[in-house]
Amino acid sequence: MAERNERKERIGVVVSDKMNKSVVIEVQRKFMHPTYGKIVRLDKRYVAHDEKDECKIGDKVRITETRPLSKTKRWRVSEVLEKAK
Question: Is residue 65, in this structure, part of any structural domain at all?
Fold first, then answer.
């Protein structure tokens, strides 16, 4: 039987929960610019599947790569790390 590769995981903050069973997660990535040495911050948004509709705006969550679930959804919420205050 073929071994399955490790799936990508990201940690981010929920910025929108207006859809049914879907949330938008914003993931921040910091890295040093190769030429200038400045710390650059990149924000990327992912649409993730939230089966139980438990995520609210401001929650810190871990998302996992999955098969395409719709036109834009390729991630699912694997766990809620921190609830919004």
Answer: yes
- Strand boundaries in 1-85, DSSP class E: 9-16, 22-32, 39-49, 60-65, 75-82
The answer to the question of residue 57 being in a domain is yes
For the chain, 85 residues long, give each residue's pLDDT as a single digit of tens. 778 889 999 999 999 999 999 999 999 999 999 999 999 999 999 999 999 999 999 999 999 999 999 999 999 999 999 998 8
Nearest to 84 by CA among 22, 14, 16, 25: 14
79 phi, psi to nearest 5 deg? -160, 155
